[in-house]
Write a structure and sequence with these properties.
Blueprint lengths: L1 E4 L3 H8 L15 E5 L2 E8 L4 E7 L7 E3 L4 E8 L2 E5 L3 E4 L4 E4 L5 E5 L5 E8 L7 E4 L15 E3 L14 E4 L2 E8 L2 H6 L7 E10 L5 E3 L4 E3 L10 E12 L3
Length: 246
């Protein structure tokens, strides 16, 4: 399922009383792994519009209750299960479940599988330093994003470069592909693929009346494209994710 987490008055209240000291990170994150007290994360793919990160969260560990004041975020569970929480609600997530998170909305993800939980994170615009931690059981409340001392060079991780567009790569029990879509017919053809997720990473899908249908960090099931005639693609790039089984 795809869930939506909206910015609320409670988020606004806590956002107003938390310091925001975001400093851009002086490092090439495309070559690093960032160690966290709950696991680690690394950059899978980026373009001028969006960043895609792979997160591993260890069993019973959790990210801080945090928000990104200026970024829209999507989390997609690839493997394992998670308890996802905001200031107002919580939900259990399984593989291929996704959450759309409005900017400024506090949230936390806890792994509930003994082998840990693997998550893809989509963030737009690309601003990894855009972070406020409200609560953190590892003592990082109000701290900025991890410094260089927590980042290591490590090879062997699955990443996408610019010349990988159109090539599929396997992540755990899922297959991910970044595609450039040149025509509406190519996009509508994806509607024949069942139970696949599609995330916009650049450009837009416009209705025949000129209305924005989908833009960066919008997510849908590909079958939702069925019957969506008359659409227009503008410089469209997407990520597709499908389950391939164990």
């Amino acid at each position: 399922m795809i869930f939506r987490l909206n910015f609320t008055s409670l988020d606004k209240k806590y956002l107003a009383v938390r310091p925001y000291n975001a400093t851009p990170i002086a490092a090439d994150l495309s070559k690093l792994v960032v160690n966290k007290p709950w696991g680690n994360e690394y950059l899978v793919y980026s373009n001028p519009t969006i960043e895609v990160w792979n997160l591993f969260i260890g069993y019973n560990k959790a990210t801080s209750m945090h928000c990104h004041p200026n970024k829209k975020t999507i989390l997609v569970i690839l493997d394992g299960k998670a308890n996802f929480s905001s200031l107002n609600e919580s939900m259990e997530l399984s593989p291929m479940d996704a959450v759309i998170i409005d900017s400024g909305t506090f949230h936390s993800t806890q792994a509930t599988s003994k082998s840990g939980t693997k998550v893809l994170e989509f963030e737009t615009p690309p601003m990894k330093h855009d972070l406020i931690r409200l609560e953190d059981k590892y003592g990082r409340a109000n701290d900025c994003y991890e410094g260089l001392e927590k980042m290591i060079m490590e090879s062997g991780h699955i990443r996408f470069a610019a010349n990988d567009i159109g090539n599929a790569k396997d992540f755990y029990n899922s297959r991910m592909c970044i595609k450039s879509i040149s025509s509406a017919s190519d996009l509508v053809a994806l509607g024949k693929e069942k139970n696949n997720l599609m995330i916009i990473t650049a450009g837009a899908v416009i209705s025949k009346h000129g209305d924005m249908l989908y833009g960066p960090a919008d997510i849908l099931h590909t079958e939702e494209l069925n019957g969506n005639g008359g659409i227009i693609c503008r410089d469209l790039q997407i990520v597709t994710i499908k389950t391939i089984g164990k």
